[in-house]
């Protein structure tokens, strides 16, 4: 975690990268007490998943995967916001394979493009996802797996771990291959964008799907690594009232709202109380939106930016400065 500092200059002067030669992201995101809450699932009846439960889920899945794939193989992950989505990525990294996030709202040609380009033959998913695949790849449903686990593979920090594709808005989707050091590279920027994420009582959520880098590496995995409970809530359609409900019922204090979601909240003039930080990124919000954010949330929205599907590059931090200054992270590609 970043140390609290009075100014950006003090923080920068005291910062250094602590990147070990041997590193596995599965170990990073599970390095919390087993009894601590990892994921708060609000998709149905409220369910709290502890780090111990998440580790056991990933262990059973890693055991099943180890009989089907080898180190360095690509394995798809096709879930919505769900504890099994987190467990699937962790299990894949644990055996030294490479996870490929896939989106539930993809049309068949979008799935086919990514599956074909990545060379994956197996996808961890649920029944809905298996039906979507329709023979494009073998589906592995993680439920009712036998008890068991496998040893954590000793991976290097430069060894590939995850292959994330761009949205395809500027041509054919392009895959960005990341190493196990990716999470370490993201953490400082994520912490900054949430005014030092990891404070007592922090709980984080985003409406962004965990198939995208904004959901997976700007919320889910950093939250787990920092010991911040992550709220999972599958929304068929984003609405301002549902966002307020999730924040209230989940005890959310930290939110990543994509600009589109913020615009919908502003149109509805939806206020959300109890938040400690709100982050947004991808496009400039403008003075009017930032002023509305102060009224609606009682705080300044921190803006962050990155190179598409690669790394967080700059982030404002309301806890450090006025006007905003920026912190530049190391590339994690």
What does this structure look like?
By secondary structure, the protein is of the alpha/beta class. It has a domain at 20-180: Rossmann fold. It has 11 helices and 14 strands. The chain has helices at 8-14, 25-29, 51-66, 83-94, 108-118, 127-133, 182-193, 213-226, 240-250, 259-267, 286-297; strands at residues 37-41, 47-50, 74-78, 98-102, 122-125, 138-140, 160-165, 175-179, 204-205, 230-232, 254-256, 277-281, 301-307, 311-315. It has a 5-stranded mixed β-sheet with strand order 9-11-12-13-14. A 4-stranded parallel β-sheet has the order 4-3-5-6, sandwiched between helices. It has a 3-stranded mixed β-sheet with strand order 2-1-10. Strand 13 and strand 14 form a beta hairpin. Helix 3 crosses helix 4 (83-94). It is globular and about 55 Å long. The protein starts with 7 loop residues before the first helix and ends in an 18-residue tail after the last strand.
Percent of residues in helices comes to 25-40%
Total count of helical runs of at least 4 residues: 11
Q: Rounded to an integer, what's the Rg over CA atoms?
A: 19 Å
Strands of the largest sheet, in order across it? 9-11-12-13-14
Number of strands: 14
User: Which spans have pLDDT < 50 for at least 5 consecutive residues?
Assistant: 322-333
Task: Supply the helix-strand structural class.
Answer: alpha/beta
Mean pLDDT: 90
Tell me the CATH superfamily of the domain at 20-180. ANL, N-terminal domain
The ordered string of helix (H) and strand (E) elements is HHEEHEHEHEHEEEHEHEHEHEHEE
What CATH calls the topology of the domain at 20-180 is Rossmann fold
Report how far the terminal alpha carbons are from each other.
21 Å
Shape call? globular
Just name the CATH architecture of the domain at 20-180.
3-Layer(aba) Sandwich
């Amino acid at each position: 975690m970043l140390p609290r500092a009075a100014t950006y200059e003090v923080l920068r002067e005291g910062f250094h990268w602590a990147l070990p030669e041997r590193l596995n992201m599965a170990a990073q995101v599970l390095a919390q007490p087993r009894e601590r809450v990892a994921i708060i699932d609000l998709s149905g009846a409220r369910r709290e998943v502890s780090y111990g439960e998440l580790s056991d889920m990933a262990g059973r899945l890693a055991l099943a995967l180890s009989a089907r794939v080898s180190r360095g193989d690509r394995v798809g992950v096709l879930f919505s916001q769900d504890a099994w989505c987190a467990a699937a990525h962790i299990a894949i990294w644990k055996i030294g394979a490479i996870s490929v996030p896939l989106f539930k709202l993809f049309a068949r040609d979008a799935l086919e493009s990514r599956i074909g380009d990545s060379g994956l033959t197996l996808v961890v998913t649920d029944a809905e996802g298996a039906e979507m695949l329709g023979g494009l790849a073998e589906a592995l449903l993680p439920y009712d797996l036998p008890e068991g686990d496998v040893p954590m593979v000793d991976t290097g920090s430069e060894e590939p771990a995850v292959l994330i594709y761009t949205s395809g808005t500027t041509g054919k989707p392009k895959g960005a291959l990341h190493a196990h050091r990716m999470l370490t590279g993201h953490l400082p920027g994520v912490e900054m964008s949430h005014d030092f994420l990891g404070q007592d009582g922090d709980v984080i959520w985003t409406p962004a799907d965990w198939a995208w880098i904004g959901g997976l590496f700007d919320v889910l995995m950093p939250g787990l690594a920092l010991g911040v409970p992550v709220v999972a809530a599958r929304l068929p359609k984003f609405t301002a009232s549902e966002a307020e409900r999730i924040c209230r019922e989940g005890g959310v204090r930290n939110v990543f709202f994509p600009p589109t979601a913020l615009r919908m909240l502003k149109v509805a003039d939806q206020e959300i109380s109890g938040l400690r930080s709100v982050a947004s990124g991808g496009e400039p919000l403008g003075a009017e939106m930032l002023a509305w954010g102060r009224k609606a949330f009682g705080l300044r929205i921190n803006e962050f930016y990155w190179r598409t599907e690669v790394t967080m590059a700059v982030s404002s931090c309301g806890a450090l400065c006025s006007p905003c200054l920026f912190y530049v992270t190391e590339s994690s590609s």
